[in-house]
């Protein structure tokens, strides 16, 4: 039986919809989803699998989300093309995390974020298992990005801006108009390429400086160059922060 009462479609967020996917919001759905996903630990990996007989990575995500009446595309790259982009430091349980395990800069693996840097996924050798984004070097290096399909309820004090809940120390929101590079500052204070951001994605901005012709800080030493032909910057109104 469909659990429609558990999901509220948030058309008022005015965020783009991809592949017919609608964003949903519910107070407890993320916790329930995480608990359910853990019951599937140990099910073997099967290429193309999308049932409890065996899963591949994207099949596992779609199977779990379907149980909570949230539709996902079937393929990892399509899953990454949809949803709302999420900074790594802003991840909440239930978000989808994506990896480039084959090189070439393309998404090739995916999982569901559990919190505390952990994610659950269909490992090609051990089946459904929990791994760590930070303590396991392989996954830390292969991390590509994250997307949110279930909007977290905003607190009354924080509010919403540009379709995203407002976070502490946030100063604005970047909206990507044309593909643009995301950069990361290394230990020598040099910028190194991180990944490409896609049109329609939105990111919270926490700082701005005039380095390198001007750049917006997304937190975690991540920066977008101030290129007005590629991005729209929306400054957070003072009233929204009170």
TrEMBL record:
Pfam families: NLPC_P60. GO terms for biological process: proteolysis. InterPro entries: NLP_P60_dom, Papain-like_cys_pep_sf, Peptidase_C40. SUPFAM superfamilies: Cysteine proteinases. Residues 27-150 form the NlpC/P60 domain. Residues 1-26 form the signal peptide. It comes from the Bacteria. Belongs to the peptidase C40 family. This is NlpC/P60 family protein. The lineage of its organism: Bacteria, Bacillati, Bacillota, Bacilli, Bacillales.
């Amino acid at each position: 039986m469909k659990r429609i009462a558990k999901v509220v479609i948030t058309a008022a967020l005015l965020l783009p919809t991809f592949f017919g996917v609608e964003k949903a919001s519910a107070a407890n759905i993320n916790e329930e989803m995480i608990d359910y996903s853990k019951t599937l630990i140990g099910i073997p990996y099967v290429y193309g699998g999308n049932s409890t007989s065996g899963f591949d990575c994207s099949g596992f995500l779609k199977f779990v989300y379907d149980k909570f009446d949230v539709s996902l595309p079937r393929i990892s790259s399509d899953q990454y093309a949809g949803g709302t982009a999420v900074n790594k430091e802003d991840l909440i349980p239930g978000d989808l995390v994506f990896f480039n395990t084959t090189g070439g800069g393309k998404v090739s693996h995916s999982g569901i974020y559990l919190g505390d840097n952990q994610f659950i996924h269909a490992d090609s050798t051990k089946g459904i298992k929990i791994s760590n984004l930070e303590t396991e070097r392989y996954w830390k290096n292969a991390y590509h990005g994250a997307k949110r399909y279930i909007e977290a309820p905003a607190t009354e004090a924080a509010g919403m801006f540009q379709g995203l809940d407002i976070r502490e120390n946030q100063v604005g929101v970047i909206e990507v108009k044309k593909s643009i590079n995301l950069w990361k500052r290394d230990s020598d204070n040099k910028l190194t390429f991180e990944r490409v951001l896609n049109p329609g994605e939105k990111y919270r901005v926490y700082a701005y400086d005039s380095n390198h012709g001007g750049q917006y800080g997304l937190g975690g030493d991540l920066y977008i160059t101030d290129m007005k032909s590629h991005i729209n910057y929306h400054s957070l109104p003072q009233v929204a922060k009170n």
